[in-house]
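On to our target:
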Amino acid sequence: MPVAVRVIPCLDVAAGRVVKGVNFLDLRDAGDPVELARRYYEQGADEITFLDVTATVDDRATMYDVVQATAEQVFIPLTVGGGVRTVEDVARLQGHGADKIGVNSAAIARPALLGEIADRFGAQALVLSLDVKRSARGASGWVVTTHGGRTETDIDALAWAIEAIERGAGELLVNSIDADGTKNGFDLPLIAAMREISRVPVIASGGAGSIEHFAPAIAAGADAVLAASVFHNGELTVGDVKQGLAEAGILVRN
């Protein structure tokens, strides 16, 4: 039986506000995270993803408050990432209402963290967040970046995804830094490459600009599509995206 494709609005949060930029630069205010999350929930979102894009010590307490306030009003899975460095961080976020935890930079710095989280909370609670950039430094043509896309590594993106899955990651959130915020469409070759090596669900992120961009991402191998700007700017609703996918013959949840 086919599994319904998920549509996931993403809220990049800094100091308690939703922000958005292009290629992770020139961030601008996009609204209140709790208010936006509730709006997307009412539009039929399957999940909500929060990414703390600054993740400083000062902002972390604010993020816990945002997660808790959202969980009290939004009754779909919440994924929270940014600044998660220990299993204690995961426990506290889950205590405030997060269902899944996204890990990126800290896992690259210390891969054993993935196993620690998976062992304690289960693979279903662990999302590997990959901020991927095209680069000849990677054997596959892609490398992973850290610190919100600002620091490029020498780590091949596909090799790292394979290792992370072996260590316990239950899902891959694959964000194209090159496509992020451009609204020119998802990086389809990247999605296809990740699908080929992954035995866990793949979430496509980065580049959505129109209804026509979502179905090709699913055809390339994504199990879910994630977008930010088109929702925050009111250009599309979650319902619009689901209708477009359904019209393309793709199963979505009502």
In short: The mean pLDDT is 92. Residues 57-71 form the longest helix (15 residues). The CA atoms of residues 7 and 41 lie 11 Å apart. The two ends are 17 Å apart (CA to CA).
